[in-house]
Amino acid sequence: MSNHSDDLSKNRRRLLQGMGALPLAGMAGVAGVAGLGSLPGLSRAAAPATSAINTTKLAVTDTEVIVGQLHSATGTMAISETGSIQAEQLAIDQINAMGGVLGRKIKVIKEDGASDWPTFAEKSKKLLVNDKVACVFGCWTSASRKAVLPIFEKENGLLYYPTFYEGLEQSKNVIYTGQEATQQIIYSLDWGSKEKKAKTFFLVGSDYIWPRTSMKIARKHIESVGKLGSVVGEEYYPLGHTNFNSLINKIKVAKPDCIFAAVVGGSNVAFYKQLKAAGITGAKQFLLTLSVTEDEMLGVGGENFAGFYSSMKYFQSLDNANNKAFVAAFRKAYGPKAVIGDVTQAGYLGPWLWKAAVEKAGSFDVDKVVAASPGIELKTAPEGYVKLHANHHLWSKSRIAQGQTDGTFKVVSESPQLIEPNPFPKGYQ
To answer: How far, CA to CA in Å, does 331 sit from each of 7, 81, 87, 372?
Structure first.
């Protein structure tokens, strides 16, 4: 395991160092990346005057616009957040290769939140107040988002947040490109009840706001709103926790039909290895998680997760033209073995949604970009198609996939329609 961690760290350092200069040469290569010709506002019209499109003193010149990136490149969350850093940079490089935004190339200031919420807050203030960035692509955990939210609202900054999360939030200053709880949790529990006949559930999570709130919603759905059955256990462990033996003993005693998990970051590696060592495998136990994507699978290992299920809106194996082009471009930039998880894909959407809103507004001013955002659609999204709701969340499909021994996922269920985002569902608060 230590060798794997060292390799991950080396890869991460190498990836981060190489991000400033990705080889996306030539318009032909870029246009083929994801059917990008159909994205809004890609014409090479003459660039408008800076004074007309930047009235709030953001970092915009006649030739460039500066944005921020704020993720954990180090610490326990780096296993999850490195993909977001990569995907956002890929989108920015593709946009720059097409001429940028309103005739300006995008320049990125990267900050490391280092898996520490006060550091996220401090770095967000630097980006907004000192650097005057036009927007920020960033955060992963809800704890980091909650830490920066008051600063974005006070300074009137704009955050594109890529992670599936617990909902119960809506801010003028945040565009949420991942799923909220009704799209991820409720769909997956209903699927488990119908397809796996699950009636008893054991809830497990890391100990911070997203898992705790997600499990509160899950419990209400299981016991009262959805009337699926009963909760027979509920346990939380600190971020970075690596000894799950006492939990596994409790699970063995409770014998739940379903382990419903929201263990986050590096803890997943220990959790799934210890489950397998204790004989709890996908062949014997139905486990459904909200927090293992292809990114975490790198550390967990397919052999330890095989047969278990994840609920996400995106999996790298999705069979559509948009996704095939995206995966090819991502691997060209980051190597043939690079993997793409749900939050990585949602991170990729951020720069495109921002570009579309800026060009629809004809301005980099945050208030104007926000006003132009509802209704924007991306027909070229790797997940298929998304549309931005007035509540700043995306309409998107929900999917369940089963982990395979080679570390990939096989999609076994997909919502027939796009699910409308509902961050404040009745009966779940």
So the answer is: 18, 17, 11, 33
